[in-house]
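Troubleshooting entry. Yesterday's outputs looked truncated, so today I'm pasting the complete records for two proteins to confirm everything comes through intact. If either block looks cut off, that's the bug. Protein one:
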Amino acid sequence: MVKKELGNLTVKVEIQDEETHTIQTLHDVKRRYEYLKYKQKEHLYAVFLNNSNRFIADKLIGLGTRDSVGFDLQDLIRTAAITNAGAVILVHNHPSGKPGATQKDIETTKDANKILEKIDVELLDHVIIAKDSDHSMRQSNDDPF
């Protein structure tokens, strides 16, 4: 763990391994977040990538109920800026087992996309992990993709 003082701000960085992973496909996302299908509440993660789609970090930005989850848009923007991300993928689970995007999922994705565009960060996808199958909003051409 590296700890550095920057004025009144303390930054802690934990390096997990030397090798950075590239997230190129839906399969890469599903493999990394497959464990979410066993959660009893909706968990929403933001996955921060550099311009080459190399994994920088992920962050749990929302913990909801068994059928919905919300999150703080400012937290998403702040973390994207701090990590100097070039792209973001949203990933959350549906404990109900239904893989498709709900109207709330679509609204959340639109809001995230609008705010990320303002800081020149691309929203690559919003992936929904369910027990028996998964859903890519980009591949399904769900709004805003």
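Protein two, checking that the full record survives here as well:
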Amino acid sequence: MRRLLSAAETVAALFLLLIALLTAGNVLLRDVFSVQIPDWYDGSRMLQGIALFWGLALATCYGSHICVDIVWEHLRPRGRRALDVAATAVTLAFLAPLAWMVWVKVGSTGTQGTMDLRLPLVNFYAVAAVGMTVAAVLAAVRLVLLLRGREALLEPPALDAPAAPKASDGP
């Protein structure tokens, strides 16, 4: 499970990095040399979709999406768990058909390509569809773990605090 989450985090971060590099590179080339990267706009849109779907997978698994916890904060642990189970079940009920429909889109894309380089859109859509499928699978895993009372497996990894220097480390 940790490997899948680590892979999803890496994929989402990689695509965010690619968006930043593509955008910054295009701005630099446009301002300095008055040229632009072919398909930078289409590429950045496709990469953003991929990053969103993979990020949605992580937010779903960790239960860390943007939410208002007014009700949840006032519940006892048993009520919190019940609300988490209900929310995850509703999320799964939406993500599973969405994943299916993204795969339908992949199948119906045909030979469509980007404007300048004619890069096949099906490749971008397929990577996004895998991300949405991972989101649906992780929602199902989260639901099962919540039903079994094993929420501890769903916590995002903690950022390790820097270790305090030891007396033997010297100045």
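Both blocks look complete. Sanity check on protein two: DSSP finds five helices and no strands in the chain.
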